[in-house]
Design brief:
Helix content is about 30%, strand content about 25%. It is built from 6 helices and 7 strands, in the order βαβαββαββαβαα. It is elongated and about 50 Å long.
């Protein structure tokens, strides 16, 4: 069975390698702006399904799609910031507060889909304006939901988390592994993590 990750994210590739020794990664050309959904959990589940579906082809492929958003305390949904101003707005909004990171994941195999989402609460300390701008000038915010990478320079912003650390990076490793095992138990796929 071939495993295909429908993502260009280097972090998702790194995290998927914790479960699968061999897989391919392709960029999904799905236009995310075509999906409108007010509920962040439904949004990421739908986007993950659409990304996986956009790259589906051969029948003997397990396709994994994922999408991550950050939900502010005011229920604003943050994706990847398009510019410095948006990145500043996101980080300033999250400063000193708890926010939620939600990742939707779809496993697609022979037309059957298993879709779920994982949630992690992240608590930021209060951030000074200058440190926000220093972080933005590093360039790190511009390929990450919410404008920060917990595994990078923004690690110093985080007081604590409640949930899966890897979910905040973009792929909930434990939940994904358990979903794969669920497909194995149902004899939908064959998989050994060795």
């Amino acid at each position: 069975m071939e495993v295909l990750l429908a993502s260009k994210s280097p972090r998702r590739r790194q995290l998927l390698s914790l479960i699968f020794k061999e897989f391919q990664s392709v960029t999904s050309d799905f236009d995310e702006s075509t999906v409108t959904e007010n509920n962040p959990e439904e949004l990421v589940k739908r986007l993950s399904f659409c990304k996986a579906s956009a790259v589906s082809g051969r029948k003997e492929q397990l396709i994994i799609g994922a999408d991550t958003v950050v939900v502010s305390p005011q229920n604003r949904v943050f994706g990847i910031p398009p510019d410095e101003s948006a990145a500043y707005d996101m980080l300033q909004t999250l400063s000193g507060k708890k926010h939620r990171v939600i990742t939707g994941v779809t496993l697609l195999y022979q037309g059957e889909a298993l879709t779920f989402c994982s949630k992690t609460d992240v608590y930021f300390r209060s951030l000074e304006e200058e440190e926000i701008w220093d972080y933005i000038r590093s360039g790190e915010p511009f390929d990450k939901a919410g404008g920060y990478g917990i595994q990078g320079k923004a690690a110093i912003f985080v007081k604590k988390i409640d949930g899966d650390f890897y979910n905040v990076m973009g792929l909930p490793v434990t939940d994904l592994y358990l979903a794969v095992q669920q497909l194995v138990r149902k004899k939908i796929i064959n998989f050994k993590n060795s």
